[in-house]
Design a protein that fits this description.
By secondary structure, the chain is mostly helical. It is built from twelve helices and two strands, in the order ααααααββαααααα.
Amino acid sequence: MIPLPWVGFLLLILALLAFDLGVFHRRPHAQSPREALCWSGLWVGLSLSFNALVYFLYERNWLGVGTEIGLDLDGSTAALQFFTGYLIELSLSLDNVFVIGLVISYFSVPLAYQHRVLFWGVLGALVLRGAMIAAGAALIARFHWTIYLFGLFLVGTAVKLLVARQDTIDPERSLLVRVARRIFPLTPEMHGDRFFVRVGGRLMMTPLFLVVLVVESSDVIFAVDSIPAIFAVTRDPFLVFTSNIFAILGLRSLYFALAPLIERFLYLKTSLVFILAFVGMKMLLSHHYPIPTAVSLAMIAGILVVGVAASILVSRREAAASSAPAPPPVGASPPEQAPEEWRRETEPERSGTLS
C-alpha cells in the first residue's frame, strides 16, 4: 500500500468538505430539490473526473500506483473497476436514503439543519469505512476463502432484504446512542444547529447530535453490505475506498433530491435485492468462473434501469387510475342536469326512426 496517493486523496476530500460546509453551507438553510439536484450533478461530475484521473494513475503508474504485487492493473481496467464499484455503492446507498428519512422524521429535524447532520455523518463514515475496507482487504489477501464468506453473506442479505420491512425505526437500539446517553445527559429540546450546550454549568447533548449518531450507525450497517460487494469487483483497496467515498459524498445531495420521491420507486428495493444476489454469486464463482467487470457493470446498470422504469410506469398507472372519474352505479338515474357525455354512456342508443 503506497501512502502518498492515499494522503493526497484524503486531503482532496477534506478540502471539498471544508469548502462545502465553510462556503456554500456556512449558514443553515433549507435545501430545495433543485439545489439538491445541482449538487448531486456536481458530485457525480467530480466522481467521473476522478475516474479519469484513475486511468492515468494506473496506466502510467504515477506515484507508483498499480504496481502492487498481485494487482498489476492497467488504466482501462482500473477505471472500469472504479466506475463499477461507484455504481454499486451508489445504488446500494439509495436504500440508505429511506432510512435517513425515517431517522430525520423520527427526531423532527428542521430542514435547515439536515445538511449539517448529513455532513458530519459523512465525515465519520470516512474513518469507519476506511477501517472496514482495510480489514476486509487484509482478510482477503491472507485468507482467500473469505471471499466465499462474503459471497454467502451478500446472498443471505439479499434474501433478508426481500422479506424484511423497514417501516419503523427504533434509535434506542443503536449502540452509539446508548453509550452516548450514559456519557452525556440529553436536553429535552434542540438548540439550533448545536450538538452540545451548557445548561446550569453541565455539558449536555442535544437531540441533533443523537441524529448524527443514528445516521452514523445506519451507515455502518449498510457498509457491511456494500463494502464486500465492491470487493467482488476489485481487490485494490485504493479503488474500493475511493469509489466508496465518492458515492457517499453524493449521498447527502441525493437525499434532499430523492427523499420526497423515494416512496414512488416501488421496485427500487427489488432492484437492490437482485444486485446483492448477483454480486454475491459473482464472489462465489470468482475462483472458478470469473465474471468480467464489463459484464458486471452491464448487469448492475440494467437491473437499476429496469427497476426505475417499472416503478415509473406503475406510479403513472396508479396516478391515472386514482384521478379517473368513478363510473356511475348500475341502474342509477342521471341527475337533472347531467353532462352530455354521461347521458351518452348511460342511455341506450336510439335509432333515427320511431317504432
